[in-house]
Amino acid sequence: MRIIDAHVHVLSTYEPMDPFPDTGRVDRLLYLMDDAGVEKAVMLPVVAPFSPENNADCARWAREHADRLATMTDVALHETDAAERVARAREAYGCVAISYYPNSADIAWMLDEERAPLWQAFVDSGLVCNLQVTPPNYGTLLTLAQRYPNVPFLCNHLGLPSSLDPADVTYGGLDEAAALDNVFVKASAFYAAANTSWDPRCARALSYFTSLVNALGAERILWGTDWPPTSRHLTYRQALEVVRAFAPTLDDGQRAHILGANAAHLLGI
Ligand SMILES: [Zn+2]
User: Fold this and answer.
1) pLDDT at 167
2) Domain count, the chain
3) For residue 9, how far is its CA from the centre of ligand 1 (angstroms)?
């Protein structure tokens, strides 16, 4: 079974990990992947004042460790040159997707007519659009996915569901994505959805996971850790075992899809 971690950050200085800002070093990640039997990991660059060159850094690590690492490229999609940057990203960075953390609570602007060239750049490049989407923005995501059926959308961290009732079978309305074949969600950062973030068997986090699998199907879910932030709560190995060992309702085929096959297929790795 291929095991691919679809969400990590790699950077030598990561201020949010203070007082140990080098927690996210590439050598540590490769060691932890070996230890847990993880074949590959997908990096999401963090472009910040403490890491302004992280797109280029991640591109270099992906080249140096092509058998172990792949990278996304962070593009500020709200900026006026976003379409050109998406168009150039694969050649410039060898990326498999574009990652964007919105700078606004409401992302309805993504539907504005003047953004059409941005989405055309996604269509032309074939790159996956990786978004941080919260429940109030699920409607915008669904509209985007309907309007641009050739753009695959990948959401972070179970869709950040902590404001939802874990028993909500509609998963805040995201279940409508089951009818669209271009919406995917990462089962990552379980700590953010947990009551007890130190517990890899936290019932609340696992019930979100189960609801999401039931709503969308196992073919739409990609396991990831969100290392190194997750390391404040769980070991790297535990962040894998949340799904591999503790997810209660998966059969072997579903587990294989979620742990690696879906990432391999969607991202071409
Ligand atoms: Zn993250």
Assistant:
1) 87
2) 1
3) 6
| Ligand 1 center to 226 CA (angstroms) | 5
Q: Which burial class, exposed, middle or buried, applies to 252 when counting CB atoms under 10 A from its CB (0-12, 13-18, 19+)?
A: exposed
The domain in which residue 29 lies consists of 4-267
Q: What is the CATH number of the domain that holds 139?
A: 3.20.20.140
The full 3-state SS of 75-110, as one line of letters, equals CCCCCCCHHHHHHHHHHHHCCCEEEECCCCCCCHHH
Mean pLDDT by 10 residues, the chain (269 residues): 97 95 97 98 97 98 98 97 98 98 95 97 98 98 98 98 94 98 97 94 95 96 98 97 92 97 98
Distance 8 CA to ligand 1 centre (A): 6
CA of residue 132 to ligand 1 center, whole Å: 9
